[in-house]
Amino acid sequence: MIRLEAVTKNFASKRGTLPALHGIDLQVGRGEIFGIIGASGAGKSTLVRLINLLERPSSGQVWIDGQQITDARGTGLQALRRQIGMVFQHFNLLSGRTVARNVAYPLELAGKLTKAQIAEKVAALLARVGLSDHAQKYPRQLSGGQKQRVGIARALANDPKVLLCDEATSALDPQTTGQVLDLLQEINRELGVTIVMITHEMEVIRRACDRVAVLEKGRVVEEGPVAKVFLHPGHPVSRALVREAEGDAALSDPGTATGQHLRLTFTGADTHQPLLSRIAREFGVDFAILGGRVGHIRTTPYAQFSIALSGGDAVAATAALQAAGAAVEVIGGAAPAAAPAEVRHLHVV
Ligand SMILES: Nc1ncnc2c1ncn2[C@@H]1O[C@H](COP(=O)(O)OP(=O)(O)OP(=O)(O)O)[C@@H](O)[C@H]1O
Ligand SMILES: [Mg+2]
Fold first, then answer.
1. CA dist., res. 209 & res. 35, Å (int)
2. CATH of the domain at 259
3. Contact residues of ligand 1, CB 6 A cut-off
4. Is pTM, for the whole model, over 0.85?
């Protein structure tokens, strides 16, 4: 659906050229919610602005639906922009227009519908975002969440295939953020709109995205399914973003606890099995829990614990955890000693 190939972007500055993006390769599939996360200045806004050609790449190519768009101009560019809606952090509504007329604005610009058709379409869009009762209000009379719903309705006006959201929830409180993310997921599901979502918060990625790219200083340092990046972040920048969202216990450093230190990750149906107690009983091992987190990635439950495992048959216990669906990583501590013979015997019986 969207493909960036070796894209770079340099800005001219007083002190010479400022490289904002270096050799970005990315693919976003049709119907995906794709997250781009990174610190301030990492290049996130520049990256999405290349997708609707608010910026042009210094080198490399951008493809949408199999079409190379980097050289689009004039009517070709206008047609492309209509296929791509954009939602902004600070809503960017026109303060002198009512809610309905803000949503009508892109339809008026496109000039394809009659007044009556525009009114009908605006009513449908406001119903979709839950603002039918607010059509005649002005932006200043709305809460932040309501303003962003207007922004979303306006972005959908020309039936785009792609929605670009640049920090769409960053100005909202956590509860309103949740509601706006729910709305975006509903739009993705029901209208099949591909969504590219920029954020500096891992929490937004966890709640709403299928895949994520982590951007640092203009480079993609990690990319993959959200479950992978969120539960097993491979790059220090990704780990720092997870810690920021989940606290230190999430990826805890096990410290000096005795025994072997393991990180266990359960996802999906396995999350709610009483596995630890069963394994402890069966193999005579003891667990100390060093840290952990439980929650959902979109709708999939997960649990992740760091434990110190001691006593009993640790090797067999580890194998049984894996066999039962847990991902097991050794994160430190002493390697398990050979199990006492009587414990092994118990297990065999
Ligand atoms: N129009 C521009 N002219 C010059 N430099 C720019 C321009 N736009 C962005 N930059 C620079 O490019 C780099 C990346 O900026 P960008 O806005 O893409 O970052 P960001 O990840 O969106 O940050 P934030 O989270 O603060 O919005 C920064 O160093 C910024 O100063
Ligand atoms: Mg930005």
1. 6
2. 3.30.70.260
3. 11, 13, 18, 20, 38, 40-46, 200
4. yes
